[in-house]
Structures are given as structure tokens and as C-alpha cells.
Q: What sequence folds into this?
């Protein structure tokens, strides 16, 4: 009979919820669990992040060929933009579902995760646009920036509430507020730390690859300063050949695929941690267990 680790590693298609020791976690515990889940289920997250990677690639195409897309072929530009946004939503929703399922010891496949994601696509898209609209409008003025930060954090779990608890859009934002409000500063600090960690991982890997390319004389069009700016601030190189520009995009997308899940897994674990601390979700889990994550969290 296969062990629990073997079934998790193989991602069996028939989902079953196992037993996991849910308990309140400190920040260090959240980080340890984040990297542990990522390592054990790397192939699952890599497959899911491919959708976000496609949106990232489409975004690069829109930026690099903006004149073509919006001046010569506006319809194609609009279609590419919509595709970019669609793949981004699918990717971020899928990684969220995958994070929750693996944390609760449910055996899933990329296909089953995507099916669940598509079931919640329109509510997730609508809630994301509402969140983005409010935060963007508040950042228009200097006075509104503190309020933008406040609501961005207060509603920071809207993706998790949409994907796991399935409320309507407005309730999803309010539900996130219920989990954040009692510990706003704590959640803010943890969200910021997880974001910085994901960013640092991305920058270190990208800069290291760039330095290797320079040290081995594989590229001569950029220097160390260019590589540092590329890894730290993003953007594209200027005055380079099309070939090197394409190589830099491929490297950026590959590193993005590695680093981006860290951010989403971390937020999802923080969401469950808030439910455990505030609502006793760990005690709820000690009762009779349903067969799927949807019924467990609905």
C-alpha cells in the first residue's frame, strides 16, 4: 500500500484529504512550510505557473511591439491584452488552489486544479478588477496612498476567499477584512516580508545567471551594472541585438516561473494561519473529514 508521501509525490487523480497537523504558525514556520510544499510538489506548481508565464510573455510582446499591436493592428493588440490578463488570472488562481490542496494533504493533478480554477474564473476576475480599481484610484493622490495600502492589505486574501470559500464578490472582500482587521499590522508585515523574499529570490537567480554569461564571455553587449539593474529593477536592455534581447526574456520568464509560486504559496498559508488563529480552523478539521477541499472550506 503506498505511503502518504508517495501518493503526494505522484499527485493521484482521485482527491482525498489526509491528516495534517494544523496549528498557528510563526513567520519562520510559514516560510519553512512554503518551501517544503514547493519542493515536494514542484512539478505541480511548475505546471500551474506556466499560465502566468504565458501572460508574462504576452506582456513583453505588447511592450516590445506596442507600435505594431496598437497602431497597425489594434484588434490584435486588444486580443493579446485580454489573453495576457486571462492567463494571469488562471495562473494565480491555480497556484492558490494547488497551495491550499497540498497544505491540506489533498492529492491533486494539474488538470483537477485547473478545473476548480475555471469554476471560479469569473468571480475571481471580477473581484480582482474591483480590488485593482479601488487601490489604483486611491493611489492617484498622495493623501490616498496610505488608504490604498490599508485596503490592499485588508482585502489581501480575496483570492483565497474566492477560491476556497466561494462567496459572492463583495462578501469575499469583507470576508478577507474579517481575517485581517484584528491583526492588520502583523499581516502587513508578513505580506511585505513574503513579497520581498520572492523578489530577492528572483533577483539573486537572475543576476547570478547574468554574471555567469558575462564571466564566460557568452555576451559582450552588457556589463555588470546592466545586469544588476536588470535583476533588481526589471525592464529590458537597451542597444542590444535582437538575439540577446530574446535570450534575456527567456531567462527572465524561467526565473519568474521559479520565484512567483513562492509569493502565492506564502499568502495562501498566511490565509489559513489567520483562519486557525481567529476561527479555530484547526479544531474544525478534527471533526469528520469531507473528501475534497471545496466541501471542507465551503
A:
Amino acid at each position: 500500500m503506498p505511503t502518504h508521501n508517495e501518493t503526494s509525490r505522484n499527485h493521484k487523480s482521485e482527491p482525498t484529504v489526509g491528516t495534517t497537523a494544523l496549528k498557528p504558525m510563526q513567520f519562520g514556520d510559514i516560510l519553512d512550510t512554503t518551501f517544503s510544499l514547493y519542493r515536494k510538489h514542484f512539478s505541480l506548481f511548475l505546471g500551474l505557473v506556466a499560465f502566468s508565464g504565458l501572460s508574462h510573455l504576452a506582456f513583453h510582446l505588447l511592450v516590445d511591439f506596442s507600435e505594431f499591436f496598437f497602431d497597425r493592428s489594434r484588434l490584435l493588440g486588444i486580443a493579446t491584452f485580454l489573453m495576457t490578463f486571462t492567463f494571469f488570472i488562471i495562473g494565480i488562481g491555480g497556484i492558490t488552489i494547488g497551495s491550499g490542496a497540498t497544505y491540506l494533504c489533498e492529492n491533486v493533478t494539474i488538470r483537477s486544479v485547473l478545473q476548480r480554477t475555471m469554476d471560479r474564473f469569473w468571480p475571481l476576475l471580477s473581484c480582482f478588477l474591483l480590488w485593482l480599481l479601488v487601490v489604483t484610484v486611491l493611489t492617484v493622490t498622495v493623501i490616498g496612498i496610505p488608504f490604498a495600502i490599508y485596503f490592499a492589505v485588508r482585502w489581501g486574501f480575496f483570492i483565497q476567499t474566492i477560491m476556497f470559500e466561494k462567496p459572492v464578490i463583495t462578501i469575499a472582500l469583507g470576508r478577507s477584512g474579517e481575517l485581517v482587521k484584528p491583526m492588520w499590522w502583523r499581516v502587513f508585515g508578513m505580506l511585505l516580508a513574503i513579497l520581498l523574499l520572492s523578489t530577492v529570490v528572483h533577483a539573486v537567480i537572475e543576476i547570478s545567471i547574468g554574471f555567469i554569461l558575462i564571466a564566460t564571455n557568452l555576451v559582450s553587449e552588457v556589463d555588470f551594472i546592466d545586469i544588476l539593474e536588470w535583476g533588481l529593477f526589471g525592464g529590458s536592455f537597451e542597444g542590444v541585438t535582437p538575439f540577446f534581447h530574446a535570450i534575456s526574456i527567456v531567462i527572465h520568464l524561467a526565473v519568474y516561473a521559479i520565484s512567483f509560486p513562492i509569493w502565492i504559496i506564502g499568502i495562501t498559508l498566511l490565509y489559513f494561519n489567520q483562519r486557525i488563529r481567529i476561527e479555530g480552523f484547526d479544531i474544525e478539521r478534527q471533526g469528520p473529514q469531507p473528501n475534497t477541499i471545496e466541501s471542507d472550506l465551503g
